[in-house]
Each structure stands twice: as structure tokens, then as C-alpha cells.
Amino acid sequence: MSRIVSSLKERCSSLSILRSINFCKHDRYNSLIISQNQVHGKECRAYLSVPVRWKSVSNRASSFSAISESKDSISIEGEKIDQISSPVDSKDSLSTSLINEQYGYLSTFQKKNDSKDEQFSVESAPYQRHSTLDLIRSILVLKSCQIMGAHPKLLSQIEHIFASRKIFPVTSSFLTFIIRNTAFRHFCGGENIQEVRNKSLQLWKIRTGTILDYAAEHTQEDRKNATKKKDNIVGNNSVPNFNTSTPNKPNQPARTYDYDTEYLCDKHVEIFLECIRAAESISEARKEVAPETENRGKSFAALKVTSLGNPFLLERMSSAISEGRNLFSKFDKSHTGVISRKDFEEGYRLFFKDADERLPNILERMDPDDSGKIDYVTWSKFLGPADLPRIVSSCRKAGPLFRSTPTGKELELIHVMYNRINKVAKEAARTGTRLLIDAEQTYFQPAIDNITQNLQQRYNNIDMSPEGPIIFGTHQCYLQSTPQKIHHDVERALRFKYHFATKLVRGAYMIGERIRALHMGYPSPIFETKAATDACFNQSLEYILSQRVLQNTKSEIMLGTHNSDSVKLAMKLLNDLEISSSETIYFAQLLGMSDHLASLVMTNGHIVYKYMPYGKVDEVIPYLLRRAQENSDIFSESSDDIYCMSKELLQRIN
Ligand SMILES: Cc1cc2nc3c(=O)[nH]c(=O)nc-3n(C[C@H](O)[C@H](O)[C@H](O)COP(=O)(O)OP(=O)(O)OC[C@H]3O[C@@H](n4cnc5c(N)ncnc54)[C@H](O)[C@@H]3O)c2cc1C
């Protein structure tokens, strides 16, 4: 206990004596509130997140007033809490680990929580429109997902069964039938655009918008067609299939870029164009299904850049951009993020041989106002992947920047990929559909950000798009680099006169990122604790909104979160900062989850948008399983949904 208490004291310095210990619901995580009622006239509280599996306990537990500690146990109202369970997994916060390490699962609580019904009275409303059959199905689906979320190995076994089902055709159709009528129906919009359209319009009747998310990955049929098309591609696009087994050799491709991928990426462009047109038509049709809605709501579509370009190529491009950033840090002797002209000149001479010839021109581009200063925002514009080959040709020696620079062939492919994405973005701009560019793993993200910034500069231009932004990037708040990145991105938008727009999320690839960092021997890019990620999320939200007010811009944020505290904070900030437009912040959740939270948002006058994956069952389910493996804790968030649905069901039975 002493370790927990000292960890608490660090976080809440005025906390000196522990008087009461309560279990309550703080966010979707259960929390142990350890509070001292009055410290210097102020209520001082500290929260500790506890594992989701404690939730069943907190449903029954309420307030405990008497707490006593001994060296190795804690008693609450005379009841000793000393049961130890298996260690918590990595997704729980540090303080959770500390508590669990010592006490484990507190299974002995049997108290009733009187306030829970009150808490969900508003949030239960959305479930009243569901049929009883739908309620039972949803409860079963979410319950199974919770079990899978708690046992990631089970998830991979299911994925394996799903992958091998084609061997037994009868089993396969049966399995597809079951999935279509359970998980698919719960989490997905449909198999084709018509079904997605119908579901979207149904949702709009209850003021819920949709974000179309084409979720399928490459199918077997696509792969067969891709192989057949090889010759055509050679003839038309000259897309090379180059292979080398010498990674890291200067200016040599380290990976394989195959025709299949290129063909499939071209196919995905067609699908995304169809998706954007559908989003537009849904938006148009909303007025007919719900004429009372004064505003027809925005249309949104999501896009994963890795579906439009070879992931290996994105990785190459990302490492080149990261090396460009590292070079800036080497020039930045003062570590302030701003380099004086003098330091820049010295740095340039140290690394490049053509200083006399090229420096005057470079300096003119880097510091057009003659301010004597160069910052990362200007530098990053100058050092895009296409500029690199020319720049590194005059490197004094073959360092990391030299090695990561894309080859001529790779640049061709980058260009083809950029054209694909641009085609989709252009259609989004034409139809007024907001295009959300998803964030992915850190080894792809610099390339994705670079592409997003270029598109934003083009399509979010203040004069071209006076009503607001079209292209949204994504910032993942579990990354330690995010606060600085947001700062740069807001500044870049101001400087180059375009609307800043982002989807703010916590981040979906935490476990994978940590494992990769461990294996490859670099520091994990992820914050160490959930609390730090939460703080980053809240501060980023506050920063973007306050900048919007200070700079009088039309920045927009989509909040991709199921965290009720974050949602409440956003609504409070809108109020405090007197931001009148309800279209500054869009609240987004995954379809089939957190309807009680959606209801709360709607009650406060905002529209909720649901991410709606769609595609053929056989294609979408493997995609969802893979995403679920990467982000298994999302399933554990469904307890509140299950609670509200069960309550509604019980009311009907009684
Ligand atoms: C509409 C929508 C769009 C999304 N788009 C993307 C996207 O483009 N890219 C993407 O990566 N994700 C995306 N996500 C997923 C998102 O990043 C989260 O994984 C998910 O929403 C859970 O976070 P939360 O804020 O809802 O809930 P919370 O339960 O409050 O947060 C859980 C998240 O906190 C972080 N976390 C948990 N434990 C720790 C710890 N010990 N240390 C540090 N951090 C921790 C992790 O990011 C975890 O996912 C999207 C989610 C939604 C709803």
C-alpha cells in the first residue's frame, strides 16, 4: 500500500491523510477515488484507474468511509482486501499496476451502487428504439467481444479459423451466415453502398451522422486479377518490380515493390471515389428523411493511406523524412527549435560540399523575410522526399540521410501514390466531403503526415475553401512527440494560410509500438502511463481550441474517443471559450459502441458521427479482427453499453 500511497502523493501533493476510499465510475475505467475531504479549504481528490474487470465490483460497490492500512493489507469498513490475482496487462496505467501488484482483484465487495441508475438515466434512452431481438444480439456480441478483448490469443485463433474456413465450404457458409447476422450487423454499415446508405439515413433520423470507412483489405480475387494485369501495368505505368537483398545500401531500394500491390492500390482509388460520392448523396438525402433538421450535417469519409501505396514505400519515405528532421536537430545547437542564419550556414558547410554555390539560394528560400531565423516549419517544407536526392548528392559522406533517401524508381512510385491520394482528395473537395486521413504506425506516420500537409495546403486553402477544411489529419495523443507536432502543424497552417483540421485520438497501436521499440532497441515513442496520454489529449484539445479563438481561424477537430471525460471536457471548453459553432468539434465513435455517450452528446446539442466500416463480410471481418488484435482494449470499453442495454431489456421483460 505504501507504494500506492506515495505514488498518489506525488500526483496530488496536498494529499496527506487518506480518509475515505470510494469506488466510482470515472471515465469508462473504474476508479479508486482516494480523497481527503478538505485541504486548505479545497476538496482534494486523487483517482487511480483500476482494471476493467473490476467493473463488476464497482457496479455493486459504493462509498466506504472507514479505511485502515496495515503494512501489507488494506481494510475498508473492517473488510480486509488482500486477494491477489494475475498481473495486469500493459494497457493499464502505472498506478493500476501498483495497486494490482499488491492487492489484485477485489472480489469481496458486495455493496450496492445507488447512483449508477441515475448516472445512466439519460444515456439509456438510445436503446429504447432497438427491437428486443436487436438488444439481445447486441448484448451477446459485445459480451463475446469483451471476452476476446481480455484474451488476445483467442482473437488470433478466431482469425485463424476464419482464414482457413474456405477449406470446408459448408462450414464456411455457416460461419459467414452467423457472422453476418451478429458481429457484422452490429459493427458494420453493410456489404455495399446501398446498404450503407440505408443504414446511414436510418441513423440520421436520430441525429447521428456517419463516417464511411471502406474496411476491406486485398481479396483473393483482387490478387488473381492483379497477377493477370501484370503485363498491362508494365506497358502503361512502367511500375517496376525491383528486388534487392541488400537493405541499407546507399540509394538502393531495400524492399520489394510488386505489381500486385500497385494494381490493388489503383483498385482502392475507385472504391474510395465511390465512397466519397456515396457520402455526398447520403448528405443530400438527409433532408428528406428528417426535414426538421435545419442543417444537413457534414459528409465524412475515412481513408487509410496504406491502402493507396505500398507500405514498404511509406516506410522508406518516413525514414527519409525522419532523417531530415534529425539533420535539423544537428543544426539546432541551442535546442530551441529555431536556428540562426549563422548556425545554419555553419551546419550546412559541415555536412554539404556545395555551400558556396547553393547556400545563398537556400537561405533565401528558408528565410524569405530576412528575419535571421529558420525554424522546423520552414525546414520541413524544404526537405520533402522529392527534394532529398538533389540535396544528398552533395553530402560530404554517406550518413543516415544519404542512406534513407529514396531512389529515382522509388520517387516515381511515391509520385504515383501521391497522384492516387490526390485524386481522392480532389473528389472530396468537389463534393464538399470531409476526408479523414487515419493515423497509423509510427514507421508510416511521417510519410502520411507529409502527404496530409501537402493536401491540406492545397484543399484547405482559406480562399479556395472559405467554409472550412476538407482534409483532416490525425494526431495520436499517446505519442510523446504529439504536443510539439500539433504546435508545428497549427503554426504551419497559419503561415501557409490554410485551415488546420485534425482528428484527435489517443492511438490504436500502443502494444505493437512498444514491442517494436523493445525489439529494435530504441526508446518507446509512447507515453509511459495512461494518465500522461490523457493529459496530452486534454491539453492538445485545449491548445487547438484556444488557438482557434486567439488567431480567429476556422480550425476544426474531430474527437475520435469513447472517453466520457474527454467528451465532457470538449463540451465545457466550447462553452468556456464561447465558441458558438457546433461544427468546430465533431464527436466521433465506432458504430455499435458507446450509444449512451452519443446520447449525452446529442442532449447537449451536438451531432455524433459513427465510424461505419463496410465491405463484403468475408473481407471486412478479417480486417476487423486484425484491428481488434491491435486495439483489444477497445472491447473492454463496452461494459456501459451492455449495462444500459441489459437495463432496457429487463424493463421490457418486467
Ligand atoms: C472515430 C474514431 C477514429 C479513430 N481513428 C484512429 C486513427 O486514425 N488512428 C489510431 O491510431 N486510432 C484511431 N482510433 C482509435 C483510438 O486511437 C483509440 O485506440 C480508441 O478510441 C480508444 O481510446 P479512447 O480515447 O476511446 O478511450 P480510453 O479508454 O480513454 O483510452 C484508451 C487508449 O489510451 C491509451 N493508453 C491506454 N493505456 C495506456 C498506457 N498505459 N500508457 C499510455 N497510453 C495508454 C491507448 O491509446 C488506448 O487505446 C479511432 C477511434 C475512434 C473512436
UniProtKB/TrEMBL annotation:
One of its GO terms (molecular function) is FAD binding. GO terms for cellular component: mitochondrion. InterPro entries: EF-hand-dom_pair (IPR011992), EF_Hand_1_Ca_BS (IPR018247), EF_hand_dom (IPR002048), FAD-linked_oxidoreductase-like (IPR029041), Proline_DH_dom (IPR002872), Proline_oxidase (IPR015659). Residues 222-232 have a biased composition (Basic and acidic residues). Its EC number is 1.5.5.2. It comes from the Eukaryota. It catalyses: L-proline + a quinone = (S)-1-pyrroline-5-carboxylate + a quinol + H(+). PROSITE patterns: EF_HAND_1, EF_HAND_2. It is an enzyme of class 1 (oxidoreductase). Pfam families: Pro_dh. Residues 222-253 are annotated as: Disordered. Residues 319-354 form the EF-hand domain. Residues 234-253 have a biased composition (Polar residues). Belongs to the proline oxidase family. Converts proline to delta-1-pyrroline-5-carboxylate. This is Proline dehydrogenase.
